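Lecture 7 notes. Example A: sequence first, then its structure tokens.
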Amino acid sequence: MQAPGLGVACILAKIAVAVGPFVAAVPWAFGAAAAPPANPAIDMGGYLRVANAAAMHRESHRLSEAEFIRMSKEAETVILDARSRDKYEELHIKGAINLSFPDIAIESLARALPDRNARILIYCNNNFSYGPGPFPSKLPSASLNISTYIALYDYGYRNVYELGPLIDIGASRLEFESRPAR
């Protein structure tokens, strides 16, 4: 039998372990220091809520290479490449449009993807191996697919599908093209 109050101490210890990293990262949230200046145009809590919702939605929207190819040939499907303009021009999936991730904003999305119900296929650097020039590797947690999916989800796009596997670029059945140098 536990001593009285020991169960509460264990629960509090578990809470301290779970919350500890958060307190260290944002001490102002617990009154340890002054809060940073407010900026209504930046919402970390909102981002984390959207990221969690997008992650759940994404699980049923990841495609094999064959599924990606099949869907890319269907009418009203858009292939979106969110890499930099330079990397896009070096090599991209044939037919893809480029909207570089830093340029994703209300107005640019309205121009490039006016129909929020359109099917959008996305891919990124981390989908291709042996293509370090046009497709340099990123850390898995910093994969551009993740950021792009979350951003599109936040802007109201729900018909987004992501190329799932890591594919040897030399063995891929996808068609690629490049743009002439400027």
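Example B, a different protein, same format:
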Amino acid sequence: MTEPETLSEARESRINEAVQFLDDEFQRVQRELNERRKSFEKEFASKRKNVEKRTRKELKRIQSELKKNPIVKRADAVRKDVTKEVETRVDSLLGLMQIASRSDVQRINKKLTTLNRRLKEIEESRKTNGSSPSIKEHHPVQG
């Protein structure tokens, strides 16, 4: 072999070694960064959980203190009183306008459900017995 070929081969070999070194170094740095990222994520998750736990604990403490505060107690009592008063006045207004309230409608629905159930029982007994029992045989609905 001639000397120029040997020099070019040596250069090519050194370049290949340098490229391989850079590739290996890049992969090492990439692995290290990946490990740091995972470590950071674990640390962040742990700290986030701790902050959430402390925040919930502090929130409970503040809520407890607020419940003891006379102003908050009074505001809650006023809210309850106003709610009762509004309900009373709405019921009164509905009564004057002869409109059923929600509780009236619920009570009527309950009675209708009971009547429907009893009517179905009567119809079933007619189908089963082939007879027509009188309505007097069944107990009237209590309201």
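Note on Example B: The first helix runs from residue 3 to 68. The chain has a mean pLDDT of 88.
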